[in-house]
Amino acid sequence: MKASVYYGKNDIRYEDVAVPEIEDGDILVKMKSCGLCGTDIHKAQHQTVTGPVVLSHEIAAEVVKVGKRVTRFRPGDRVVTAIHVPCFSCHYCDRGHFTLCEQFKPTNIEPGGFAEYIRLPELHVKHLTHKIPQGVSWEKAAMVEPIGCCLHGLKQAAITPGCSVLVMGSGTIGLLSAQLSAMMGASNVIVSDLSPFKLDLALRLGINHAINPAQENLEARIGEITDGLGVDLVVIAAGVSSLLPQAVNLLRRGGRVVVFSPFDQNNMVSIDAARFFRDEISIVGTYSLSSYEMPEAVEIISRNRINIDEMITHRWPLSSLGEAIEFAANPQHDVLKVIMQMDD
Q1: pTM of the model
Q2: Which of 77, 144, 179, 289 has the most crowded Cβ, counting Cβ within 10 A?
Q3: 66-125 pLDDT, tens digit each
Q4: Dihedral sign, CA of 284, 290, 295, 298?
């Protein structure tokens, strides 16, 4: 089979690799669409993984073979899946912190999403794999996993009807989080970003306000929009640690910051710590998704509860993965979500 294999920065090879062998509880799927995630771009550009490795996990695929014990799926089924499975019984799982489970990160698909055929291990088949509803395209189905990640994060946010939400960063995760916040009842959703293209797209998606902090004073604009109260929630969807102290300053009393993006570990910032006691604010982190968000994300896609079509801006053949990563990583390009597809 064919796969785009990452060996190092600027060294991604479209080559023949072995088709994975499945066991009795596994299924083998053929990739139809696979999203290019921001983590894929980061890994390839900053060499945070050691090659050779097949990246990605935002998969929509067709079942081609099932193990003897598999009863929920059969060849020809259209499915989506995700990448990590918790144990459901440890200290963290018992308390609902599934992504902190020791089993979570070691579980994986084989070899990765940027391959022609992928083995979904038994745990993934049981807990993470779902059929794609009729009428949902392959490329829209590939957005199920990132939607699930955003749902997982927003569950930390305690969104209530009528609240105000600021999303800092208008990439795929930011614009999904903004749309989902509105879907959950937020009446005033604001995004900030430096990209005019992404800000224009946010407005086309129905976001109430789109602010470029290089051209406007963000704190002043938030004050105008919220009548001086500040926002109920800030979602940080960009890996810029300096956004954290600004997010804290933009919160109303009792507000919450949800940190979605990873920050540079060596970049320390100072925040107004007095606000924790004086104003009862909170800061929470979020990572990945649990098994419970997958069916929710499938339902959102199937009912068109948010606008996915306009978010998918580019499609590339799998053989051109290296070119697609370079294109998506260039801030000069008007690009949001890239979907990789098998070559014709």
Answers
A1: 0.96
A2: 144
A3: 999 999 999 999 999 999 999 999 999 999 999 999 999 999 999 999 999 999 999 999
A4: positive
Q: Which structure tokens are listed for 127?
A: 């807990």
Q: How far apart are CA 6 and CA 320, in angstroms?
A: 12
Residues 6+ apart with CB under 8 A from 224: none
| Collapsed DSSP state (helix, strand, coil) of residue 46 | helix
CB 79 within 8 A of CB 133: no
Q: Is 135 left (phi over 0), alpha (psi -120 to 50) or beta?
A: left
Q: Are residues 278 and 294 in the same domain?
A: no
Give the whole-angstrom CA distance, residue 88 versus residue 110.
Answer: 22
Report the domain count for the chain: 2
Find the DSSP H helices in 47-129: 91-94, 122-127
Give Cα separations from 79 to 65, 215, 292, 302 (angstroms): 13, 44, 16, 13
List the domain range (segments joined by +) for residue 249: 157-285
Q: Is 18 exposed, middle or buried, given 0-12, 13-18 or 19+ CB atoms closer than 10 A?
A: exposed
Contacts from 277-282 at CB under 8 Å and sequence distance 24+? 279/251, 279/253, 279/254, 279/255, 280/253, 280/254, 281/248, 281/251, 281/253, 281/254, 281/255, 281/256, 281/257, 282/256, 282/257
Instruction: Specify whether 190 is located in the same domain as 243.
Output: yes
